[in-house]
Task: inverse folding
């Protein structure tokens, strides 16, 4: 969603006010945290990190600030820096289930699957019904080629959360790969209903259409399959390529 000029002006005015506060009280960590928050709303994450650096220098034992900086580093693609910050956040507060989840994703991004499995297990030990950790671990198992392990995580989500759109799409693709066509079709139909009448996430919608196209192809319905593939390409031209990389297409 685009930011209005009025909103941007208000944020830039707030930045100037915080700059003045920092000039008067340079050793107040909260001023730097507040300024980082505004930079993030302006989509300027490197500037936000500079303010978080100062906040951490002033208040080095704040777990949340380390977590936040790690999240920004991860978004910028510096996974090693992200892992360092998440590790520090966990050392300061070992009950941070969402930090274990984020660090697991970071490890998974660089193929460090043993460390990722450990961190997902810790996240789920702290919150056994954390469906986000289950979903992320399931996606990691897909990347590892362990379809049955992925399916166990997706099935577990179904027991805890009704109407999880992501789960139905990814479970459908997993079932399709396992040759369970009818079960896959059911998941894609549920995902389609969940996506109807709401703001759609383009990559997930495209994956749903591709999965449904493969079901149609398996059932001998080439015209419907072709229509769904074309619709998916119109939404996200890279969607099928991304599924191929994941071994799901």
Result:
């Amino acid at each position: 969603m685009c930011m209005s000029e009025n909103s941007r002006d208000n944020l830039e005015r707030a930045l100037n006010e915080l700059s003045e506060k920092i000039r008067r009280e340079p050793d107040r960590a909260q001023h730097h945290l507040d300024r980082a928050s505004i930079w993030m709303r302006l989509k300027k994450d490197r500037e936000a990190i500079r303010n978080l650096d100062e906040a951490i220098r002033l208040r080095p034992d704040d777990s949340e600030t380390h977590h936040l900086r790690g999240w920004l580093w991860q978004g910028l693609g510096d996974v090693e820096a992200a892992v360092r910050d998440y590790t520090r956040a966990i050392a300061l507060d070992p009950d941070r289930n969402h930090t274990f989840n984020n660090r697991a994703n970071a490890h998974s991004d660089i193929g460090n699957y043993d460390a990722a499995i450990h961190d997902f297990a810790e996240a789920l030990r702290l919150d056994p019904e954390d469906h986000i950790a289950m979903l992320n671990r399931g996606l990691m198992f897909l990347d590892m080629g362990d379809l049955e392990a992925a399916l166990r995580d997706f099935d577990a989500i179904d027991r805890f959360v009704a109407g999880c759109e992501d789960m139905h799409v990814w479970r459908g693709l997993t079932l399709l790969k396992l040759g369970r066509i009818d079960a896959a079709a059911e998941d894609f139909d549920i995902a389609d209903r969940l996506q109807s009448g709401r703001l759609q996430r383009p990559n997930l919608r495209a994956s749903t259409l591709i999965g449904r196209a493969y079901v149609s192809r398996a059932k001998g319905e080439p015209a419907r399959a072709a229509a769904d593939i074309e619709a998916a390409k119109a939404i996200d031209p890279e969607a099928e390529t991304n599924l191929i990389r994941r071994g799901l297409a």
Remarks:
- Residues 163-248 form one domain.
- The first helix runs from residue 5 to 24.
- DSSP finds 14 helices and no strands in the chain.
- The chain has a mean pLDDT of 92.
